[in-house]
Backbone:
């Protein structure tokens, strides 16, 4: 690799690493906050929360990689163009491969890494995450024994315990089950206890009654001396989690188990996930080529109407949205499985056409003009607001 190629590789790689780290932190934080209810609602420890947070990380990395590549390529080439480095490279007679080769090297390595994460680390993390959440649900009976508060176990299931006695007994137990639209069940027991079994914890209600109210308003009461209640049935709390197509490894998607209940009911979802696994690894290359097509030529700033980074991200977002849309629709419509390949491969062909013909990929002129006009109006409005605020609250305004 030539000195200039190594220089471009080093600059692009540094910006790629920084962009990947920052965007990953932001997106990962939003994903982690969605799991905060594991601690606040289910009473799990902080260690469980951090374990869930770590397991959510592999699913985010492949999605962020293409955007980090696009940011790195567009920023590097735009900076080199502003410093007249691209002009010097062209004037020295260097071929365009001097710019393209180091960028594609990073993009291809990123694509291989994305494919590996999608098909090895991510399924492992997803299965481990399912297991952790299933275990948390299965142990919910031990965590919801809190005096004087109603605990929501699941949609339509509430439990309340009045007191916890010194001998381990529970007093004043209420369980409300409103899941069935035409039936409401209220369990009330004067005392009870938790019993550990091989299948999990069981709440044994003693000396109580069941009030059953039908949709027509009729109420029936059933008294009981002892009634075991496995709350895991309300929360799907088995310690054996249900695995979905995204949780499976690639060999399983290629040859699913015919006895898999989810596969028997939704076979197209497995096919869609398989095609997504075989196509999504292309997006780092797609974003890199978009960045080259947008900012890979030396050009005067008088010609540029919009910053290359904005153009690259705008085009990349449109392409990635098309890929996500095709993936969602492919779960029910087989035709969109073809679109999963057509979107990235078609974009690659278009970008190669722009690069080979020395044309610059830009947003339509009227889009750029509207964006520029809107930006100018917003800037003037912000400047006017700042001036009015300064006059009002400045020293003279207060006087």
Residues:
């Amino acid at each position: 690799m030539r000195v200039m190629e190594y220089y471009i590789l080093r600059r692009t790689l540094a910006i790629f690493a920084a962009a990947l780290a920052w965007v990953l932190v932001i997106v990962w934080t939003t994903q982690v906050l969605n799991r905060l209810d594991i601690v606040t609602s289910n009473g799990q420890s902080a260690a469980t929360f951090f374990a869930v947070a770590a397991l959510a990380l592999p699913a985010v990395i492949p999605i962020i990689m293409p955007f980090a590549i696009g940011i790195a390529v567009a920023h590097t080439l735009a900076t080199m163009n502003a410093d007249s480095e691209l002009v010097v490279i062209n004037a020295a007679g260097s071929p365009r491969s001097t710019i393209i080769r180091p960028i594609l090297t990073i993009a291809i390595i990123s694509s291989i890494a994305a494919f590996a994460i999608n098909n090895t680390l991510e399924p492992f993390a997803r299965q481990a995450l399912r297991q952790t959440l299933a275990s948390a649900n299965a142990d919910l009976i031990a965590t919801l024994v809190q005096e004087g508060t109603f605990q929501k176990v699941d949609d339509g299931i509430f439990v309340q315990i009045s007191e916890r006695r010194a001998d381990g007994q529970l007093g004043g137990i209420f369980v409300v089950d409103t899941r069935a639209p035409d039936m409401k069940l209220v369990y009330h027991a004067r005392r009870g206890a938790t019993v550990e079994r091989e299948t999990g914890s069981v709440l044994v209600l003693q000396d109580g009654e069941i009030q059953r109210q039908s949709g027509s308003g009729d109420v029936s009461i059933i008294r009981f001396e002892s009634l075991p209640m496995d709350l895991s049935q309300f929360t799907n709390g088995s310690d054996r989690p249900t695995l979905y197509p995204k949780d499976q490894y690639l060999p399983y998607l290629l040859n699913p188990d015919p006895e898999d209940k989810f596969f028997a009911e939704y076979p197209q979802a497995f096919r869609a996930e398989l095609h997504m696994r075989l196509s999504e690894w292309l997006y780092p290359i797609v974003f890199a080529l978009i960045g080259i097509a947008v900012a890979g030529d030396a050009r005067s700033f008088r010609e540029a109407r919009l910053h290359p980074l904005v153009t690259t991200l705008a085009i990349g977002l449109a392409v990635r949205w098309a890929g996500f849309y095709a993936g969602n629709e492919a779960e029910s419509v087989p035709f969109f499985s073809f679109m999963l390949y057509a979107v990235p491969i078609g974009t690659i062909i278009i970008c190669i056409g722009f690069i080979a013909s020395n044309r610059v990929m830009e947003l339509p002129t009227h889009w750029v003009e509207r964006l520029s006009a809107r930006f100018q109006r917003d800037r003037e409005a912000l400047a006017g607001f700042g001036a009015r605020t300064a006059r009002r609250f400045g020293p003279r305004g207060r006087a």
Remarks:
- The chain has two domains: 3-137+242-378, 144-233.
- Residues 390 and 397 are 8 Å apart (CA to CA).
